[in-house]
Amino acid sequence: MDLDPETTLSLAGQDLDDTFNSVVPPLYQSAIFQFEDVGETKGYDYTRSGNPTRAALEDTLAGLDGGAGAVACATGMAAVSTVTSLFDAGAHLICAHDCYGGTERLFSCLDDQDKLSVSYEDLSDRDALADAVRPETAALWVETPSNPLLRIVDLEALSEFADAHDLLLVVDNTFLSPLLQRPIDYGADLVVYSATKYLNGHSDVVGGAVIACTEALADRVDFAANAHGTVAAPFDSWLVLRGAKTLPVRLRQHETNARALAHFLDERPAVQRVCYPGLHDHPGHEIARAQQNGYGGMVSFFVDDEQVDVEALLRSTEVFALAESLGGVESLIEHPATMSHASMAPEQREAAGITNGLIRLSVGIESTDDLRADLSQALTAAGAEAAASGYDTPVSAEAQAPASEGTCRGDPSTVPAGGLEASGRCPPCAPASTFYSPLSASSSSSSSMLSRSSAARSNSRFSAASSISSRIWSTRSSFWSSERYSTTGSATSLES
């Protein structure tokens, strides 16, 4: 029976307990396993090499991502480190110039030790990319959306470039999760996650994962993780697996809130620019529509730090917690220049566009109104806007009306002529699920996505496609099917 991703996550790990048929996956909190006889085991001997609880998580992640295998790691950086260990000494990597600060820190360390050399480029610039390739170049390292500027790059185009130059394509998909983007469908060889973030979703464990597109590559990753000891502990694996069961529900609310806040901030006079791929004026909006199933829960924005007291803004939020990390149920606010990306050299931050006026939000699942009000009062406290009671929302009165008072407020027909739709923006109050069309819909974007996916699967690198994937991901966009989740009962285009 083919299962949708949300069903797969709900049932994940239920087949672990043959003795008592426990519905909740059991925790095998054991470092060692007794041999049946000399040279004979039941599949496990030492937890660093393998553990049933970790294996349940790995099988689930491999299936969701369309990979042939996965390795659960101790942290997101352990996952990154595991992948870098696959390259020969002296190999060269080309990395996105606005990558996560922790990734850049590790790459710089390896570069300083002459183990790897790394070039940082704008991966959307094909000419710069071509100029960066060297004889020893081994891989492209991509984040899309990037951290913290949410830049989008065309994965299919990068895959074609990687194939032409015999490079591995490694994609950090932490910001979206496999429910919103499956890089392997577009030609990625390896997908990396910080499982601390959306996959777990509760900020109570650190973890990571690497998913490989072929069995041969999965075996190499598994060997490296075992040899370097970067694997996840059983209890950590159990926590990530438990958290992942609610991923579909959480993602919908994350995105509902992120959409609303992106539009809200876009109307604030103190905000210079909002970085959110769901805004139609985002440079990567069309690519995001084609290769993603949604836009996620991360929003970044720039303020004029000569007009706005950035530190006062960060101190003044009451709902948003001032903290690093992302993807948990709670909303977080952080300052990349002094927090998540503080380890980057100042000139590198400047080249990437990470300025003192950049603020990053990890939007949680709280009340949308509370989050909007919190940002409004914090901007006021920072001197960004004249003091006022409450806040002015850019949403029309009709669009703000509760669903119980009439037509769903996510229905574009409720937006008056000349309102938000006329400006090319989505109604910010709409539930995220009302903006997704089934992949089978006859829209140009759906056709494009199908052709991309088919092309990726026909690539010779995908000859060892996972049977898990084909069993549980029969319809790629089923998670965000508008027909199933729309409150209006009709499929609404992403353009809505």
CATH homologous superfamily grouping of the largest domain: Type I PLP-dependent aspartate aminotransferase-like (Major domain)
β-strand amount: 5-15%
Helix content: 25-40%
| Weakly predicted, low-confidence segments | 386-496
GO molecular function: cystathionine gamma-lyase activity; cystathionine gamma-synthase activity; pyridoxal phosphate binding
Pfam family, one: Cys_Met_Meta_PP
Cofactor: pyridoxal 5'-phosphate
Protein name: Cystathionine gamma-synthase
What keyword list fits this structure?
five-stranded mixed β-sheet, alpha/beta, seven-stranded mixed β-sheet, 12 strands, single chain, 2 domains, 12% strand, 496 residues, Aspartate Aminotransferase, domain 2, Aspartate Aminotransferase, domain 1
Description:
52% of the residues are buried. α2 runs parallel beside α8 and α11 packs antiparallel against α13. By secondary structure, the chain is α/β, with parallel strands linked by helices. Helix content is 34%, strand content 12%. The protein has helices spanning 5-11, 52-65, 76-84, 101-112, 126-132, 155-164, 215-228, 234-244, 247-266, 285-291, 310-316, 346-352, 368-381, 397-400, 444-458, 467-472, 482-485; strands spanning 69-73, 91-96, 116-121, 137-143, 168-172, 190-194, 208-212, 271-275, 298-303, 321-322, 332-334, 358-362. Mean pLDDT is 82; it is low at 386-496. The chain has a seven-stranded mixed β-sheet with strand order 1-7-6-5-4-2-3, with helices on both faces. Strands 8-9-12-11-10 form a five-stranded mixed β-sheet, covered by helices on one side. The chain has two domains: 5-247, Type I PLP-dependent aspartate aminotransferase-like (Major domain) (Aspartate Aminotransferase, domain 2, 3-Layer(aba) Sandwich); 248-435, Aspartate Aminotransferase, domain 1, CATH 3.90.1150.10.
